[in-house]
Amino acid sequence: MNQEYLEFMAGYLDKIEEALEFDPLKMDYDRYADNIFDIIIEIGNVFKKELPEIKTSVFLHSDSLNRDVDTTIGIIRKFLIKNGYKKSTKVESQTNKFWTSFKAYFENELPNKGYLKGQFLRYDNWDGGLYYLDLDYNYQYNLQYGVDYVEPTTISDIKLFIELAFNQWIENRYEFTKDVNSIFQKFKMPYKLQKGKVIKAGYKTTTINEKIINFAMLERKIQYAEEMIMSQETLDKKCALDYIIDSLQYIISIQEGKNINDKYATASKKISSNIDGKVYSVVKNEINELMKISNEYFDIRHNEYLNKAKEKREAITDSVFIEYLYNIAYSLLYILKLKQ
User: Fold this and answer.
1) Looking at CB atoms within 10 Å, which of 20, 46, 106, 236 has the fewest?
2) How far apart, in whole angstroms, are the C-alpha atoms of residue 172 and residue 96?
């Protein structure tokens, strides 16, 4: 399908986001709801051929506002994904800029800095004598990762490249680390190279977590969440929060115990074995509170309108609050993963 047309459709996601940013407590709620419903009706009319299910899936009633918004957004996103639409976010743009700059540094400046091991350099007597990179990326990826080399497009791809370079190709690792971190800072990327690992610069720790517990169920989700939380799109941030809470739930699920409270206790004991101490109490309370927030208060891990106690789950639409919950959950997940 025409990408320009898909871009036009995607613009309605922004319209919904803008409408949700108004604080319903500072204006008449009916007006707030009507404004959002008008956008949903407009979407149903404009895209009645492409998205016919919208008219039969929304109720347009004040009690169904959150559900109608989530349903409409879900239908649009599903259509866009099926038709190959991918919007470049600011983070993706910065990632591309970073890689372009880093690649120029790595292939043109680095060979003459004396950081690389000799077997990966080629010397040319012409032009005053210069060193050139002599690296077969594909062979190195086959050898170290068992896969073919593909030009990095995401921070996960870049992480693989930099860590491979640090561990296998670089001799002067200290200076290389300084150069890499300088480029990260130049493009305001929230990452840094530390002890051979690319980590989130926002998480303050001297301990590098290298443990792989279950890549498909845990590490892959964490990597995805770390990328999505840096997006400018609120829906992407919400998706990151879902994944990080899901990862936290997984860590808890693999603890020993007959019931969920036993598992909370086991996880807390791994951080502090003194069950009468304050550290144990703080961690267990934090786990309890985060699980209550994600399962009962908000639409994080569940899309149902009401929780088990028949209380209303609220939709989270404030991107800053989403980041707040994400960082709390991420910190707890990080320490539990270290102690696992």
Assistant:
1) 46
2) 26
Enter the pTM of the model. 0.48
The Cα 310–Cα 296 span in angstroms is: 10
**Host H or E run for residue 188:** none
The β-bridge partners of 300 are none
Q: How do the pLDDT tens digits run along the chain, 340 residues long?
A: 677 788 888 888 878 877 776 644 445 667 778 888 888 998 998 898 999 999 888 888 877 888 888 889 889 988 988 888 766 544 456 788 899 999 999 999 999 898 999 898 887 766 666 888 889 999 999 998 888 888 888 787 898 899 999 999 999 999 999 999 999 888 878 788 888 888 876 665 666 666 677 777 787 788 778 777 877 778 888 888 888 888 888 888 888 888 888 888 998 898 888 888 899 898 889 988 888 888 778 877 555 554 455 566 777 888 888 888 898 999 888 888 888 8
CB 70 within 8 A of CB 57: no
Two tokens, residue 234: 């609120």
Among 67, 33, 217, 62, smallest CA distance to 54 is for: 67
DSSP state of 124: E
